[in-house]
What we know:
By secondary structure, this protein is an alpha/beta fold. The protein is built from 21 helices and 29 strands. The protein has a 5-stranded parallel sheet, with helices on both faces.
Amino acid sequence: MKTTFPQLLMAHAQSRPHAPAMREKEYGIWQTTTWRQMADLVRDLAAGLHQAGLRRHEHVVVIGANRPRLYATMLAAQSLGAVPVPLYQDAVGGECVFPINNAEVRFAIVEDQEQIDKMLDIREQCPQLEHLYFDDPRGLRHYDQPGLASIDELAAAGHAYNQQHPTFVDDQIAQNQPDDVAAMFFTSGTTGNPKGVVHTHHTLIDRAAVGAAFDQLTDRDEVLAYLPPAWIGQNIFSYAQWLVAGYVVNCPESGSTVTIDLKEIGPTYYFAPPRVFEGLLTSVMIRMEDAGVLKRKMFHACMALARRVGPAKTDGKTVGLFDSLLYAIGNVLVYGPLRNNLGFSRVRVAYTAGEAIGPDLFSFYRSIGINLKQLYGSTETAVFVCLQPDHEARADTVGVPCDGVEIKLSETGEILVKSPGLLKEYYKNPKATAEVLSADGWYHTSDAGFIDASGHLKIIDRVKDVGRIKGGAFDNAMFAPKYVENKLKFFSHIKEAVAYGDGREKVCVMLNIDFDAVGNWAERRNLPYAGYTDLAQKSEVYELIKACVEKVNADLSRDELLAGSQISRFLVLHKELDADDGELTRTNKVRRGFIADKYQVLVDALYGGKTEQFIDTQVKFEDGRTGSVSATLRIADALTFDPVKAAA
């Protein structure tokens, strides 16, 4: 097997030159790039970068959505022994300063005018940033800045160089070794500056190959690349596994066309975090609520059958003849059209990861015949640590250790991992590296969990976040905030949740409603509202959310370990939590400590017994302007339940 990403590319180009490697939708039409075309472009870009001064081991920042030519620049950099560093395209300029300076970046390759403007804005803070290359020239015609050029110009210069030095790039590729650094991914930086996670060709290719073999991925598979390439999950699925398995990667025209593009492509291999699956299901349920009485009755009757027998059928188990017949009818009337409408008619394997997925949500997709599974991993482990076999998919576990992985638990219950996919180091941060990588090769995940009787791994929460209730009816009970937050987010009406309780006598939460779902719910009840802030504070909405909170409490009361994590009080925030306001990471994880500091007055009101609290909050708009949102927030009590004793 070839050992570096450029070598894998050239092998595909040689063995199947005319097969499609990538597709990109432009102006509503899918444009195909073959493996040979990709290899030729990579050679030209590599030569162009060499002429511009890029040298082995240097870092190259890549910022943009999934675009074939941005992927080609990553391969071009790797061909020269340089290291691509993808950054989030929705990050503000200030968030790019630390990674660029930390990695001493001189070259930035970006998608469009928005990203060029961002780089120009921070150039004074990053004086070493010499070269800026862009893919999409729209809006950039009259820009005149030193070092600014298009990818077309870069490729043209490289093509001329290759005419004079035809073996140069291939000679450079031949020098690359599997243990050379292949890429660096910056963490989301929830507690400080982000850390650069350094991965070699070997670590990424090994894990990509293991995942591909596990799910029998081949060059006949199709994927849709729509999540940020800076997130290692997307990078593994649409870059590492693309080059290992040789399947086709499809790039949507824009974020707003993903749903349409999903239906047009019909991917066979699909990945999304739970929030995407939640959003798809919410849109389905909203449409069904607006449908006629007959359609609604047929849908609910078929879904009741699907919930009862669908997961068993997806797991390959036998069900009764009568149920099989009814399910086949339901497949013609509801499940098949629904899969097609979602764009999942051809999906053979679908994965979710990053957060826990609700049992009802997980069961819904499997019940209609979609092979949805969970995986466990992180940036530091090159994603693949645990995977769920096809017929062992469960909502409450993240699968079994995949090939080459060892797992053990520390005395504190922390999950430790040994794997060929572990990071080489945190860039320029030996102290942080030593904290997570032991001398004998074990990686400290910071996750608390355990392996159940069937060999599947269960995740409880982050080790540092697992706390204790102090005082009250649940004194010294375990408190797992992420576990509680995820249970709340399983409801379609709740978008985000932030739970507090460690060292306190009770648990309180701050919530965001899902504006689309709750808005539709309000409209069907003729409940007027003037926007998010107004809708969030309606007494009817509070009753709706209170019912969700109390269902979570009832469920928690049946859990011997976590009965003390029941929610006593809650409020609905006046604004949606936003990464631009620092409240979420770029991977949409809540920054619980930051939120506690920012909304200290609300935390005090929750624990101080108040029934309402005024707050005024500064917000940042998409165009860069700032403003404020103020409201008097209701604070509500929720019913808690006595722990249910397990049967003797």
